TrEMBL record:
Pfam family, one: DUF2750
UniProt xrefs under InterPro entries: DUF2750
The name this protein goes by in its record: DUF2750 domain-containing protein
Source domain of life: Bacteria
Length: 130
């Protein structure tokens, strides 16, 4: 079970640039064995960039919930186990030609990457933590 983040930690992490947030997400997801998405009555929330349809992901429930405002205030944060992410989500996103937007926060975009890239980084991080 992951420990809830305090306000100081949230503020510090929100100050990270997109690349540092990506690295933070990889470490947190592997350490906590889960990744967070937002869902509504239709399923997983999607974002659109100029080039890609994307699924946004976050390392912690607090950051996912912070995104659930405005048009997404009816959404709720849901965790996906790391095993389920590897076994189902990576291939499912690839099959649907969807990208991932890593850890977007208010007023800052996240990095847009492909599912196999995130899968590779998560597996690499897991090897380091053994």
């Amino acid at each position: 079970m992951s420990t809830p983040l305090d306000a100081t930690a949230i503020e510090t992490i929100q100050g990270f640039d997109a690349e540092k947030r990506y690295k933070h997400l990889v470490k947190e997801v592997v350490a906590n064995r889960k990744i967070w998405i937002l869902i509504d009555e239709h399923g997983c929330v999607m974002l659109n960039t100029d080039d890609e349809d994307c699924v946004p992901v976050w390392p912690n429930k607090e950051f996912a919930e912070a995104w659930a405002t405005g048009e997404w205030d009816n959404c709720k944060a849901e965790s996906i186990s790391l095993n389920k992410w590897h076994s189902r989500w990576t291939h499912g996103l690839e099959d649907d030609e969807l990208a991932i937007v890593v850890f977007p926060i208010q007023d800052q975009e996240g990095l847009v990457i492909y599912p196999d890239e995130l899968d590779y980084e998560l597996k690499n991080q897991a090897k380091k933590q053994r």
